[in-house]
Write a structure and sequence with these properties.
single chain; globular; mainly alpha
Length: about 160
């Protein structure tokens, strides 16, 4: 019976509400304040920005309803420029290489720790999991085969429950 919304474009109000209401502070643990915020911002900006284009290169064309497809295309082109989807598809290998560079850094971290910032997942883990789920959606893109730690973490996150 209560409406929860983001109070600004750089907030995590909804996630913090879920944390306080259902997760007992485990998503945003106080001892990780600062570094966790830096990581979340990096995921939201750099990593998602490097990955969504790889999915959208296929997604927009897959929308069966013509009106819905045109509305999504209009939104994308207003934000990223006319022909952006065609450009992303043409540059897909370069886009995937850029995404893989981000993934490599997380793979290195996950070789030393079961989750991004320790022994338990925090909001950043769920955020990265969502980004990778979008990236690999419908089999359009794959996680690099050489990144065993990232793949193992992804499987653990997929099966995780509090």
């Amino acid at each position: 019976g209560r409406v929860i919304f983001e109070s600004g474009s750089e907030t995590n109000d909804v996630a913090r509400y879920v944390d306080a209401t259902f997760a007992s502070g485990r998503l945003f643990p106080v001892p990780l304040d600062g570094i966790h915020d830096i990581l979340v911002r990096h995921l939201d900006d750099e990593v998602e920005g490097a990955t969504f284009r790889c999915c959208d290169a296929f997604y927009v064309e897959s929308i069966p309803n013509l009106v819905a497809r045109m509305m999504v295309l209009r939104h994308k082109e207003r934000k990223f420029g006319r022909g952006c989807i065609t450009q992303w598809k043409a540059n897909l290998e370069d886009l995937r290489a850029g995404a893989s560079e981000h993934f490599r850094r997380f793979d290195l971290q996950l070789q030393r720790s079961p989750f991004l910032l320790g022994d338990q997942p925090v909001y950043a883990d769920f955020l990265l999991w969502g980004i990778l789920t979008n990236y690999t959606w419908n089999g359009w893109n794959e996680l690099p085969a050489t990144m065993a730690a990232l793949r193992s973490w992804f499987d653990r996150m997929t099966a995780f429950s509090f």
